[in-house]
Amino acid sequence: MNCPRCHKPLAAVEVAGLEVDLCRDCEGVWFDGDELAAVMESQKDALKDSPVAKTWEGIERKSDNPGTAVLDCPRCGAKLERYRYQSSAPAIIDGCAKGCGVWLDDGELKKVYEHWAHSILPPTGDEKALFMEAYAKLEGERQRKEKAFVENLTTMDDQPGMKGRAGKVLQKVYESFYKLGLR
Asked: CA–CA separation, 143 vs 154, rounded Å?
């Protein structure tokens, strides 16, 4: 299966007991079917008669300025719909109308988690631990990719006429921007 954003192959990784598909290039994550909801709704049975049950029903198809659908579902090829993950969440995610799954771009998993962690009903310790494990694993992948990119900048020194300067200069510039959060 290929990434809907950059079309590179997705890597199957196990996160919190689920197999999700990670793009190692653009760092987006594909959750099949109800996998994202499964993580978010682990206490649904206890909440089904509660006034806050709707908060835990997973993804609403409510869109607040979601933008135009530009991505194709990596499973069925249909256009992914852009919508807000629950009405008050800051994350706008892409989902297949046929129910194949949802795509979260780099950074959106954190927004979903932060919304979830600060919702009306706080998560239990086990729920929070599962989600933190998923986030930590995906963040670790992003950091490894970032480090490899910076280290590979020095290969520019092998180019004729560079005399060992270009890669080191680019590496320092990139590290400075990275430390400032301007990546």
From this structure: 18
